[in-house]
Design a protein that fits this description.
alpha/beta; inorganic pyrophosphatase (n-terminal core); six-stranded mixed sheet
Length: about 350
């Protein structure tokens, strides 16, 4: 962001404002960590800030400080719409196109509030008044840290803010192992620990506490793993019946696609998850090297994301989605095997 934009935002926030902070639909650790972290900061400065998530999020994120003040649009749409229409400032975090907010798209579009976008995904739409977009950044939570630094407010980061931002960075970098993790990312993490983020406790809360059903579902996922060695591709498919058998809860399939990507010789991995209630198949895509899953998801699955991590959806049946994928895949052979 330019100095001029930062000055404008500082001026905008110089007096108490009613602020709404929104993550994308099906929010993950980065979406929740970045929004709650920013919310803590704004409230500490005298603003009236609230996080409104389009729908619910995984149980393993609900210990985060400030979670009990977050509003779920899906559960309380009328109240959420009133708060949005009455807001002065609207932050959209970890997404860059309003349709990614699901049923909140129209209320956000209609809002007369000043809109501030903070996001690290590719090809942002032009809906915001102020845009902080950086596709090279590890996570939106790291961007919130830098945003506060640009505002001259790094010293305002307390233990609650540090904890939320740490969770967002850790989850979106695969515990700091993805290529987007830079020297600067580690310096940010070091400062967040200094400011009160307990790294061991955070890791335990996110990764080391699993329900029996979640582990059973992981077993079914691995049993359903298919490998296409000649195309360096692996995929997992989970039907609605699979999910129901193991009493699926939101977040239970988080990170499962990475098991497919970990298979020796695999450069492209996907998980197809049937969501019968919504009438879609949800798709998560991961890759190694230069194979661009953002472009693949945009072209075939009405989705997008990053070069090595993206998401999308299909309105075909689960089997038809897989069959179509297998028919498409050979045209990418050179990109996948080079």
């Amino acid at each position: 962001m330019t100095k001029e934009v930062i000055l404008e935002i500082n001026q905008l926030l110089s007096q108490p404002k009613k602020v709404v902070i929104v993550p994308h639909k099906n929010p993950d650790g980065d979406a929740i960590g970045s929004t709650l972290g920013l919310c803590h900061y704004l409230n500490s400065k005298g603003h009236s800030a609230v996080v409104i998530a389009p729908n619910d999020y995984p149980q393993f994120l609900k210990w985060l400080p400030g979670n009990n003040q977050a509003l779920i649009y899906e559960s309380e749409p009328e109240m959420a719409q009133r708060i949005i229409s009455d807001s002065d400032v609207l932050f959209t975090l970890d997404f860059n196109a309003l349709h990614r907010a699901g049923d909140m798209e129209k209320p956000l579009q209609d809002s007369q509030a000043k809109k501030i976008l903070i996001d690290h995904h590719q090809q942002p739409d032009g809906f915001a008044d102020f845009v902080y977009s950086d596709v090279a950044m590890s996570s939106t939570s790291e961007m919130v840290y830098h945003f506060l630094d640009m505002l001259g407010e790094k010293n305002a980061i307390n233990a609650d803010i540090a904890t939320c931002l740490y969770v967002g960075i850790m989850t979106d970098t695969g515990s700091f192992r993805f290529p987007s993790t830079t020297k600067i990312t580690h310096l940010v993490i070091s400062d967040l620990i200094e400011k009160g983020a307990n790294n061991a406790e955070i890791h335990n809360a996110i990764y080391d506490t699993n329900s029996y059903n979640r582990l059973q579902l992981l077993g079914r996922s691995l049993n359903n793993l298919k490998v296409i060695p000649e195309l360096s591709t692996a995929y997992i498919a989970l039907s609605q019946d699979d999910l129901n058998e193991f009493n699926f809860k939101k977040g239970d399939t988080e990170g499962v696609v990475n098991y497919a990507l970990s298979v020796e010789g695999i450069n492209f991995a996907l998980i197809f998850i049937e969501e019968r209630k919504e009438g879609i198949v949800k798709i998560s895509l991961r890759s190694k090297g230069n194979f661009n899953v953002n472009a693949f998801a945009r072209k075939h699955y009405d989705g997008g994301g990053h070069i090595n991590a993206a998401g999308g959806r299909s309105e075909l049946s689960l089997q038809d989605t897989i069959d179509e994928f297998i028919s498409i895949l050979p045209s990418y052979k050179n990109d996948l095997t080079s």
